[in-house]
Specification:
The protein is of the alpha/beta class. Helix content is 27%, strand content 22%. The protein has two domains: 6-158 and 343-355, Rossmann fold (3-Layer(aba) Sandwich); 161-336, Dihydrodipicolinate Reductase, domain 2 (2-Layer Sandwich). The strands form three sheets. It has a six-stranded parallel sheet with strand order 3-2-1-4-5-6, sandwiched between helices. Helix 1 packs across helix 12. The protein is globular, with a radius of gyration of 20 Å. 51% of the residues are buried. The mean pLDDT is 97.
Length: 362
Amino acid sequence: MSQKKLKVGVLGATGMVGQRFVALLENHPWYEVSLVAASANSAGQKYADAVKGRWALKSAIPAATAALTVQNASAVAAIADQVDFVFCAVDMPKDETAKLEEDYARHETPVVSNNSAHRGTPDVPMMVPEVNPEHAGVVEAQRKRLGTRRGFIAVKPNCSLQSYVPAIHPLWKFGPKKIAVATYQAISGAGKTFESWPEMVDNVIPFIKGEEEKSEKEPMKIWGRIEGGKIVAAAEPVITAQCIRVPASDGHLAAVFVQFERRPSKDDVLELWKSFSGKPQKLGLPSAPKPFLHYFEDEARPQTRLDRDAGNGMAVTIGRLRPDALFDWRFVCLSHNTVRGAAGGAVLTAELLTADGWLQGK
């Protein structure tokens, strides 16, 4: 990387994920937050004033960003002239988000998005950087469709699958056929804290709108292949999911059951988890955790409060690997939903795209 940092804008900067972007990018070696944007209601305020009383993180607001004036995220042309690319975490209807992201791309400003609007778009890469870095190659076809030279959209997948997809991927050679998963998801996944959502104290809600469909379908695109300028979803494994909201502030825990075409031994599974290293680790990207996957021998781990911050919130922790009476193996795994599962995953995706030459200065 050049010593000159890329100028980055954060769209939706006042929301919980936007705040996480701002915090993670403080002192980033490659990127500088030079612009923050949100809705018209926040536009014109200093960032510190716009988030006053609703800054959701334990860390302080970065001083350099606190002094920035919030711009209107809908002012695409004006913002595109000021930044090299943008991270997107806007809270808008899906169709409006999709249009906004394409508008930025057509203004030759790449978008790395936390939103779901383009996850199903066939020529938009949806990346877990350690799992499917090769999907960045579809950007060339997307640029042809959009008629752009440098503008494009890349997205990260839903937070609900960020723990179990990375744990299954190293076992791919054994042919996973069926997966059943139950996720126990923190309230920050809904953009909430216990102060703003007191109904969640001492409570469990057995439904999160849209999460189960995303948990079942999005992994198939991640495990798909590029063909004819589009990502064709994998046909297997078949996934069934239940997603449950639990009273934890951060961290999504998953209970996973897997049936394979060829059943691996326990030693096989543990060795593959231990030795797995993705492209971000091999390139030494700034946000890449080492190790990416960590297995606990302690049967009471991973625990949400103790282990969600592993690898600065970017690692996946795994435990309780044991035989299953209906499937081959079962285990539990954990990821930080607003770091690895949201802003951090998008930052790592941007780092990979930068390292591979897809993101450059204007």
